[in-house]
Amino acid sequence: MSFTADRLLLFGATGDLAQRMLLPSLFALDADGLLAPDLKIIGTARSSMSDAEYRNFARAALEKYLPAERRGRMAGFLNRLAYQPLDATTLEGYDDLAKKVGKPARGLAIFLSTAPSLFGPTIKGLQSAGLTGENVRMCLEKPLGTDLATSREINDAVAGAFPESRIFRIDHYLGKETVQNLLALRFANIMFEPLWNAAHIDHVQITVAETVGLEGRVAFYDDAGAIRDMVQNHMLQLLALVAMEPPAHFDAAAVRDEKVKVLRALRPVSAGETVTGQYRAGAIQGQAVPGYDEELGKDSDTETFVAIKGHVDNWRWKGVPFYLRTGKRMPKRVTEIVIQFRCVPHSIFAGKGATMQPNRLVIGIQPEENITLSLMAKVPGLDREGIRLRSVPLNIAMPDAFSGAVRRIAYERLLLDLVEGDQTLFVRRDEVEAQWEWVDAIRSRWEADGLTPKTYTAGSWGPSAAIALAERDGVTWHE
Length: 479
Prior knowledge:
The protein folds into two domains: 7-169, Rossmann fold (3-Layer(aba) Sandwich); 174-471, 2-Layer Sandwich (Dihydrodipicolinate Reductase, domain 2). It has helices at 16-31, 51-65, 75-78, 94-101, 119-128, 148-159, 177-187, 218-243, 252-264, 292-296, 398-401, 410-420, 429-449, 464-471; strands at residues 7-11, 40-45, 81-85, 108-112, 136-140, 167-169, 201-209, 274-280, 282-284, 287-289, 305-311, 321-327, 334-341, 360-366, 370-378, 389-397, 454-457. The longest helix has 26 residues, at 218-243. By secondary structure, the chain is an alpha/beta fold. Helix 1 packs across helix 2 (51-65). The chain has a nine-stranded mixed sheet, sandwiched between helices. A six-stranded parallel sheet has the order 3-2-1-4-5-6, with helices on both faces. It has a two-stranded antiparallel ribbon with strand order 9-10. 34% of the residues lie in helices and 21% in strands. It contains 14 helices and 17 strands.
């Protein structure tokens, strides 16, 4: 059932995500006239607050996390806000929450940003208060479990109250403009798709590097590690978008059908195709930082770095390795996709002393949104000592290319899609489970092989074994 919600209920409305992302995103949408005038936003959490106190809380968050040039007038947005305290673990407060929500004219969208352990009790509470009807849709923030079994428990609990057509699972990377541009790059330009296969692509690299350490996420991160925090969701979604077949239409069913096919075609990782690491004290941008064990306050076998050599066993990608790498306390913050093309089959310039380099497409996602295609060009000169060729970058800086457009953070797009009911950039249950199956198999192999993380110095690109993982195939990580 398609509807544009006129009620938005935010669970975890006083949490870090709400302050940093949800409230600023909703304010920005409101400031640009993209929210219906009658949309009411109700926040709920354990903290005891009145409506007025929550509006003051929201104002402080906006002033802290929104750039000054995007703040504008807040009064209209703050008047949309209401608040209802709730202990999500008991049924007692849900009737009062339902009264606060009222009777939507069109429908209710719920954004659930709580610990996964609260998903089940919250669904029961919403059911008891009549907040799971046909005009209600549910959005789930990660993490959606810690493995396939716990993910299925969460999905079963939610499916008991909502059909898949009304469940929206967020992966905020899918809301990033450059990630969406990947689809446009592939499917709106005739030059790329004929080359987007094993006959012309040598390998693919996907890197998600962070300079930060634990940053207040001690308990969560030590239970999760890099593979569950980054690979299982963000990186596998990026891989699926790179490798998917062209969908027939740009809609939720068609796009997600093709992504699932890729995830199901992932070959189980073999021995020697993964490297894990854990950072030790070092320096980031000239500033000394402690090691993971020092930040944690104890010894741990949790990986803060992982590199994987993956394969998609289908017609298009057979034999093309996908190198995935993510880690904390890296030299710089960067998320990028590298498409390394094969060399030309024959160089007509070899007899003139020229050397060739294969073309490379680099798609930068953060912190800079850009696309760079390296092309071979002749160095100017009379060529009396031979022809010289050089790789020349063709740069497309997205902010420059669209200088008049508003640059939006991912949650703006995703929250608007939630309110309007568009599932295209959300993750379907079978996607989540296919991702967990692959990651669980890797973790089981680590356990069976007794693999423990190798140490690496903060400010480096991870253990030397990660370099060897690529270099034994003649591949160098793009840095």
